[in-house]
Every structure is written in structure tokens, then in C-alpha cells.
Amino acid sequence: MKSRFPRPRALALALGFVAAAFGTAIDTATDANAANAADQPPVLVGFIIAQSGSPFAVTDPGRVAQIAARAVNDQGGIHGRKLVVEICDTKGQPAASLACARRLADEGAITLIGGSSANGVDKILRAKNMAAWFPMGSDPSDVRNPLSFITALNAAGAAQGTYLGAKRFGAKRAVYVSMLGNKTYQQTARFGYAQAGVSDVQIVEVPPATTDFAPYIAKIKALKPDVWGGMLYPPEQQTLLVEAAAQQGLTIPFVSSNNVIEDATIAALSKAPFPNSLALEKGEDAKRFPTWAEYERQLAQYDPHHDVKGPTDGSTTTDWLAVWTFAQIARKLPNVTVDSFRNYVTNDKQFTTDVLHPIDFTAVAPVEGMPRQENIWAYAGHVQDGHEVVDDAVPYSAWQKTPVQAWSKQQIAEATGK
Predict the structure, then answer these.
(1) Does residue 14 lie within any of the structural domains?
(2) Peptide bond preceding 234: is omega within 30 degrees of 0, i.e. cis?
(3) Alpha-carbon distance 377 to 395, whole Å?
(4) Close Cβ partners of 66 (under 8 Å, ≥ 6 residues apart)
(5) DSSP helix, strand, coil percent of the chain (3-state; round to 5)
(6) 255: β partners
(7) Contact between residue 312 and residue 64 where contact means Cβ atoms under 8 Å apart
(8) How far apart are the C-alpha atoms of 5 and 142, rounded to whole Å?
(9) CA nearest 345: which of 331, 364, 326?
């Protein structure tokens, strides 16, 4: 009597044919999907920045933005579509910012990174109903623009750094060094000091493109502060400031943010005869924060020759994070368009990553001219042995007076040799 069931070998062959046919069908569908994605235009992001022609021109932010895009594409892109970050160099001209925004929007950019509403970029955003993702945000017009989604501000580091430094070193008198006429940084620095109980703050202004800092260090010495520091831009200026202070034998504790810190600044601070305090913006610790670990991995893979001179500079890391988070959001959208991206970020009231606390994009800062700074938190840190060190994995805020660990008089004496 014949069995109703096929013999094992026959069954195996039959299942093999079915699996092969099913696999072929899947491969065909996958290939078709990949082909369809490849046929679609790339996902375009506009990046507006001064890369040349200005004393404040920088190239690192553009480099890391492209690095993030390469990493995204090597990981499959966005629904199979290629992510393209197109950089538009404004050469420091406001009119060029507006022209960049107009051209990128006309080319089909999903969002714009960088730029400032003060330069007229908001006109393009409103006309196209387009979101600005991580704009410079250094003008009150940004807070009036519901399409500006600001997560970090360069000048916010002034308040973070001064607050942290004053608390750490128990300061009563301070000197803040800033670029000539940079009232925004000066205002936020004073605010940070005031939050720490320091009202005696002297401002030392430095003209752009200064190379001889000896006279300014002499002025700082004469003022006899408990702490000194500041934020000069671009980061090369900050390096010259620190080197000049060390050469002049200054031993007063240095206070700043890593928003204007390049590798050369870290090296200079490591050798300097004075202790330092830094506000670290994004949890610069790969062991504690997976996003920072991913950033370091991408730098190692895509920047083997270290063309990025200031990988931990706040402006640099912000623009990498802008591209990286854009891609993560875009991957959640069934169809990536100007409207779908804008709608998503508009409704995300608590945007965050593991290196940023939850952000409310509608918040208004207590310092005039600097919108939404109350969103900005950072980590207490310092430079030691050629590295930035996160002292506390809990973020602090100058606006909410989050407690930070103070240095004892003995620690200060040991660090300064007094």
C-alpha cells in the first residue's frame, strides 16, 4: 500500500523548489523596490554657511555634514534614496544667505540647515512653508518664526561656560573676552555669571583677525579677576588667546564653552599653567552616549586624515547632529517631503537624543536677542591630557541653575601652584 505522504527525499526536493521560487519572488520584489528607490530623486538637504571670504568663515561644519550624509547612504540611505547635503557658501554676506535659501528651496530641498532668519532666510521658509532644521538662531526673528527649529546656539555657550566656571571656581570677579561688538555673547555671558552670583564682570573686546594677544592678556592681568575666558571665533582665535595667556604666565582659571574649541585649543589648554572649565554641549563621552560613539566612529571611518580640525567644537558637532537626526526622522516618514518633515517636527514637542535633553521648540529665552536658549543644556567638563573630559553625565542649565560640582580652594591651589 502506498503511503499518502511523500518520501523524505521527495519532500525535500519539493520544498526546495518552493523555497527557490519564493526566494526568487522575494529577490525580484527587492530588486524592484531598490530599482524604484534608485529611480527616485535624492533626498536633498540645503546647508547654508560661510566657508570662505569672511573672518568668521569655517569649513569643519560642512565637512562633518558631508560625513554624516556618507554614513547615512552607506547604511541604505533614506528608504533606499540617497541623501544629498548641498552646501551653499555665503562668504559671510547676508544677501548671499537669502540667495542660497531661495536656490536650495527651488531645487527641492526638504529642509535648510544653518542660515539665520536675520538674513532673510525666514522669507523663503515662509514662502515655501519649509522647516529650518538647526538654524544659527542668533536673531529675535527666529523666535518669531515657527518654522525655525533650533536645538543649539553658538552664543548659548557663553552663558553655559560662565555659569559653570564661576560655580566651579567660586568666582566673585570675572573678565569675559569677546569679539569686538559682539553684544549677544557679552549679554549671555553676563547672564551666566549673574546666575552664579557674579555681578562684577569686565568685558575685554578683541577685533576680528587679531594675531597679537599680548596686550589683551596684560589687560586681563591688570583687572585681577578670579576667572577669565571667553569665546572668540573662529576657533583659531581661541587657540591664539589661550597660547598667549600661557606665554604671559597667566595662572587665573580659564572659563569657556567647547563651542569654539579646535584640537589645537585642547592641546594648548592641556599645557597651560592655569586650570580650565568647559561647558561640553553634547556629552562628549563615547562610553556614556551612543550618539557620540557613532560620531567618533564616523570620523574614524570617513576622516582618516583628520581634515576636521575641531571635531568637538560645538558648531561642528551641531551640524553633524543636524544631518544625522534629519536622516533618523526622515526614515520614519512614509514619504519624505517638505510637508511631511515640517509636520513631524512641528508636532514633536519633546525632541531629544541621548546627547540632548528634551527640547520644546516654542520656548523663548530670557536673554533678549537669543531665542530658545532655555532649551540649551550642557555637561560639566574640562580639558586634561589632550582630551575633553565629561565631569558629570547629568546635563546642567545656566537658566535653571542646575547644581554643578565646585572645586575646593585646595584643588585650585594645586592646579595653579599657589
Answers:
(1) no
(2) yes
(3) 6
(4) 85, 87
(5) 45, 15, 40
(6) 229, 277
(7) no
(8) 74
(9) 326
The answer as to whether 356 is a domain residue is: no
Verify that 161 and 213 share a domain, yes or no: yes
The CATH number of the domain holding residue 399 is 3.40.50.2300
> How far is 380 from 395, CA to CA, in rounded Å?
7
262 and 295 in a single domain? The answer is no
Q: What is the pLDDT of residue 388?
A: 94
Has residue 87 been placed in a domain? Answer: yes
Q: Which of 131, 175, 129, 167 lies closest to 150, judged by CA?
A: 131
What grid cell was written down for 377? 543644556
Report residue 78: phi and psi, to 5°: -115, 105
- Asked whether residue 92 falls in the same domain as residue 235, the answer is no
If we measure between CA atoms, which residue out of 210, 191, 249, 257 comes closest to residue 229?
A: 257
Q: Are residues 203 and 238 in the same domain?
A: yes
Cell numbers at 338, concatenated: 517638505
Structure confidence at residue 33 (pLDDT):
46
The whole-model pTM stands at 0.81
Q: Which three cell numbers stand for residue 146?
A: 515657527
DSSP string, 79-137: TTBPEEEEEEE-TT-HHHHHHHHHHHHHTT-SEEEE--GGGTHHHHHHHHT-PEES---
Residue found under cell 515655501: 128
Range of the domain at 391: 156-280+377-416
On whether both 309 and 409 belong to a single domain, the answer is no
Length of the chain: 418
Same domain as 103, residue 70 = yes
Question: Is residue 224 domain-shared with residue 206, that is, in the same domain?
Answer: yes
pLDDT at residue 29, as a whole number: 41
| Whether 170 and 264 share a structural domain | yes
The number of distinct structural domains making up the chain is: 2
Mean pLDDT by 10 residues, the chain (418 residues): 38 44 46 56 95 85 97 97 96 90 96 84 91 77 77 73 94 96 88 94 95 96 97 91 97 93 96 96 87 96 96 90 96 96 86 76 64 68 94 81 68 59
